[in-house]
């Protein structure tokens, strides 16, 4: 009998251990990979420039390297003049800044997404800073066409020094900017922005 | 013998039930966390699509620089200057840096504390139940 009581005890102890593990594992952790400044910008390669696309609003964004496959909503300006950001929801989406060119047009097309969405956990651009030069990005357009981009650089910059000109300034080819937050956290936000610069590589009409 | 086996089974059941404690702790922390911002869900895509922003002009030179009616989340603490209305490829250049990350409730120590506390409480409950069952069985001489 005593032997069996010990067995009961062991069973209970194992169950307790499982409970403890479940408690720790169930949380919405968001440990951040280290490293801020990722890679340098690359030079343009206008020699083999793909054909540009006509204006068509982006409908979907795919980034296989980091598991992103999201619908794209439209974003405008907030009342204070800053760019709007997608709403904080459980399954947040990316958003295209509608005053920028559409993907595939000449100019910097700007798409934004959250890195984290508060209590909902990771945002759609949670791992944007893991992209590296050469990674592919596909934007499907509302007219059925698609534009494929290749990452040229990934930068992490302080919000106080946001490179407005580099992001929104004119360029001589179709480019893409993916923007999210990153770097150290402060209060309920972040101190930095992660910006992915990409250039058009292929188009499908 | 049989009672001992039953005791072990009961202890295992208590463990399974107790596992809901940390789950509840997580859920409670998530729901108790103040939502980042009330108007966050309001800027629906259609709301921002002002008719003037979709002209037939092909090169993104929207004539209207009027900010949309729907406010977004509070923008970055970066000093904000008025958006510039250029004739460049980007029709209206926003001011400041985009605020594309909300950390509230995602990784706060309070949330972790709740999880750890919940897990510990569950473990203690299971352990206590096991001790109680075994002692009672011994007392009854089974």
UniProtKB/TrEMBL annotation, chain A:
Residues 26-55 are annotated as: Disordered. It comes from the Bacteria. GO terms for molecular function: hydrolase activity. InterPro entries: Sortase, Sortase_dom-sf, Sortase_F, TAT_signal. PROSITE patterns: PROKAR_LIPOPROTEIN, TAT. Transmembrane segments: none annotated. Pfam families: Sortase (PF04203). Residues 1-25 form the signal peptide. Gene3D superfamilies: Sortase. Keywords: Hydrolase, Signal. This is Class F sortase.
TrEMBL record, chain B:
This is Tat pathway signal sequence domain protein. Keywords: Membrane, Signal, Transmembrane, Transmembrane helix. The chain crosses the membrane at residues 114-134. It comes from Streptomyces monashensis. Residues 28-59 have a biased composition (Low complexity). The keyword Transmembrane applies. Residues 1-25 form the signal peptide. Residues 28-113 are annotated as: Disordered. It comes from the Bacteria.
